Amino acid sequence: MNPDLNSNNIIELFHRKDEGATRYIYNSFYRSLCYYAQGILHNNQEAEDIVVDAFVKLLHKRKDFYQIKDIKAFLYTATRNACIDFLRKQKRHEYLHNEIEYLTAHAMVADDMDIVNAEVLATLYREIENLPTQCSAVFKLLFFQRLTTGQAATQLNISAKTVLNQKGKAIQLLRKAFLQKGMLPLLAIAIGVAEI
């Protein structure tokens, strides 16, 4: 981080359109916001687009904020509202209707748990990038793209047995990393694997 940036002057520099302060804020929240939006939409590209739009809105209103926590609250609210709008436009089946009703009914309720989940997923993403290449590729296909073992094997041009072996290895390595961070129970919640 730039030595000129600290908790006391980030906001002041952000108000002055300082590039370093703006990048600091972007890097602090972008990945977690993407996972938050992906959890609502189940659409990675649309989630990323919505998060970028939320940052653009923030830049237009930069002088309205005096604390980092207010910026964080604005970004999560703007992202959530944009996700709800997107789902409204994509009414494809009853599942989405129910999800929209739930999100709309709770739109004014603080979603601390969702934010925690998004931050856990950001940690998970960082740890996945530290996995061996094939482990990482298998894990992303199975848990993020929700492919079957067979589909992942076809896409990676490896056997189904290799996919299962790499999946087991990935879970073992992630389990170790999350155990060291004292976050092991959150790993099972994040990826929906009961045996973690």
Structure report:
With 196 residues, the chain is mainly alpha-helical. The chain has two domains: 1-109, Rna Polymerase Sigma Factor, Chain: A (Orthogonal Bundle), CATH 1.10.1740; 111-196, Winged helix-like DNA-binding domain superfamily/Winged helix DNA-binding domain (Arc Repressor Mutant, subunit A), CATH 1.10.10. It has ten helices and no strands. The chain has helices at residues 10-15, 19-41, 44-60, 68-89, 94-105, 112-129, 133-144, 149-156, 160-180, 184-191. α7 crosses α8 (149-156) and α9 (160-180) runs antiparallel to α10 (184-191). The longest helix has 23 residues, at 19-41. The radius of gyration is 19 Å and the shape is globular.
How many helices does DSSP assign? 10
Instruction: Kindly report the CATH topology of the largest domain.
Output: Rna Polymerase Sigma Factor, Chain: A
Q: Report on the biggest sheet.
A: none
**Uncertain residue segments:** none
| Fraction of residues in H or I helices | over 70%
Mean pLDDT: 81
Distance between the termini: 35 Å
Strand percentage, roughly? under 5%
Order of helices and strands: HHHHHHHHHH
> What oligomeric state is this?
single chain
CATH architecture heading of the largest domain? Orthogonal Bundle
